[in-house]
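INPUT
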Amino acid sequence: MALPRSEEKRIALLESAAAIMAAQGLGASTASIARGAGVAEGTLFRYFATKDVLYNALYTHLKLDLAAALRQHMAVHDSLDGQVRALWDAYIDWGVSNLSFFKTLNQLVVSDKVTAETRSTVASQLSDIKCIAQACSDNNGLTALPGGFADAVFMALAETTIQFVVRDPANGQAYKSAGFRVFWSGSVR
Amino acid sequence: MALPRSEEKRIALLESAAAIMAAQGLGASTASIARGAGVAEGTLFRYFATKDVLYNALYTHLKLDLAAALRQHMAVHDSLDGQVRALWDAYIDWGVSNLSFFKTLNQLVVSDKVTAETRSTVASQLSDIKCIAQACSDNNGLTALPGGFADAVFMALAETTIQFVVRDPANGQAYKSAGFRVFWSGSVR
DNA sequence: AGTCCTGTTGTGAGTACTCACTCATTTGTT
DNA sequence: AACAAATGAGTGAGTACTCACAACAGGACT
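OUTPUT
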């Protein structure tokens, strides 16, 4: 299995997959994904041996893209509140301005097409962000919600908030701070 | 098109669909649904003319089942806090003990297979519950989150909470009250 | 009782279609 | 010329849905 020639085509296929799956669900056909990337269907299978391989590569691609966006806005704040708020804002902004990425990533997260191996490989590349969301917070007054629950609540609230910001952008700031307030006032002891 | 003979078979088909779709997604085949209900594939199409009709009937069935469960536990409390908490507990309990119903309903809610007509017909049968969750709360101190946001936050937190209770039942009560606290302390002014 | 008649319900092989995936061929580069 | 990359019609498996028929109920008439 030689390495694919063109990184461009690989990216084009991944972004086409994200866009089309956001609209049609994970069941979107390989034919339409290839067409969207401007290549033949057979070419898709040169880059991703099976559709499952594509799912896993897409999960990795989207997660790393999100992580890169978060890192850019992770200025060091004095207060934990400020730090978490910056993370929150960056997350919401990424979701709103990459809506099809966001939608597809959410579907992949709950899908059984993404293997545990892929998930843990990606997670290990995100340890710096986890640190803020979790290790740091434990030492600073966040409530003792059972393991992982605070993370999940953060994600669930962010997902809801993004939906509302997209649907009604005029009130975007209101949703953003309301969503954060729910998370924060409910999480702090 | 005469009415189907046996209400039993109709229910069996709906419950089979809910169970199989919870495991395999909405794309589960009509063949497997019929097999799960113990009838031939052709029989499914005597009860539901197309798969889309089945989706809509299933949405209605599950929503009404949930509503019935909520009504049973909607004792009148003196405080708004108590009333909403009772609603929260009933919702979580239903999700936990009808997990496949819950999972399938969540997929149907975001699916475009369920028509606006079905949604509004069902909603009109749930007005008494909406009253507590919304009309009542507006008059009693819930924060002025933009329209529908509080509802969505409630649902998102409940979904997350149910996942954790199912995954780790020993700490069920802890998740349940933690989830409610996030909702409540973030929602009250 | 037993046997035909009639209408509806239940059946599953059959149909047309879409899907993921293949491979002989063409295209492009060196 | 030599080689790999790209192509897209072709393949078999699986899909939603159909339809000619089997199964069975309950009268009505011997």
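end of record. Chain B has two domains: 1-49, 51-187.
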